[in-house]
Amino acid sequence: MNATRWTVLEQAHGALRTVVAGVDEKAWTLPTPCEQWNVAQVLRHAVGDQRAYGAALTGNDGPTENPFDPSEDRPGQEQTFVESALTSTAQALAAVAPGTAEVPCPLPIGPLSAEIVVGAAALDAAIHAWDIAVATGQPSPLSAELAEQLTAAAETIAEPLRAFAFAPALDAQPSDDAAAQLLRYLGRDPKWTP
Fold first, then answer.
1. Alpha-carbon separation of residue 122 from 4, 10, 46, 129, 143 (angstroms)
2. Is domain 7-185 annotated with CATH 3.40.50.720?
């Protein structure tokens, strides 16, 4: 079987890798746009979510802790911690053919189409990359182009999961680009600062 190349997932995973590599040693306890979580917790959550996407397909290598109750502790060897989860998820999703109508996913609204499951995994990685970036003073990894690619997945999964996974949407602003629109739709202020 040939592996499927999901460009949007590669871009989102690249964003998370880059941002994690840029976190200063003293920044793991900083607050983030995820009000209850520090930088280390957002990373642990993001890694747990990625592992959950892979495990939904393979039954292997699921999260090692509850992604919605992540430890406050710095994971240690962060690049290895992230890479293991991203590689596992990318390999699992590479086995999914585009156009597949029903693909298992860890969300309580699945199964969903291949494009939405891949988009949801990418959305999770990209949005949490943004959370970590803005919390640690790094440039936003969420380009307007990437945000446009993630919008269909966001529109499919956000409303059913608003009660526990997404904050209420914020009002769009006339000056918003696609990245700002996506962030507001997911309950994040694009101008958030610590």
1. 15, 8, 11, 10, 13
2. no
Q: How far from 145 is each of 33, 101, 161, CA to CA, in Å?
A: 22, 25, 24
Tell me the per-residue pLDDT of 102-134, one tens digit each, with 9 for 90 and over.
999 999 998 999 999 999 999 999 999 999 999
Q: Which helix (H) or strand (E) holds 159?
A: helix 144-161
Q: How far apart are CA 84 and CA 67, in angstroms?
A: 16
1: DSSP letter: -
Residue 76 phi, psi (nearest 5): 80, 145
> Is the pTM higher than 0.85?
yes
Give the model confidence (pLDDT) of 177-194 as tens digits: 999 999 999 999 999 998
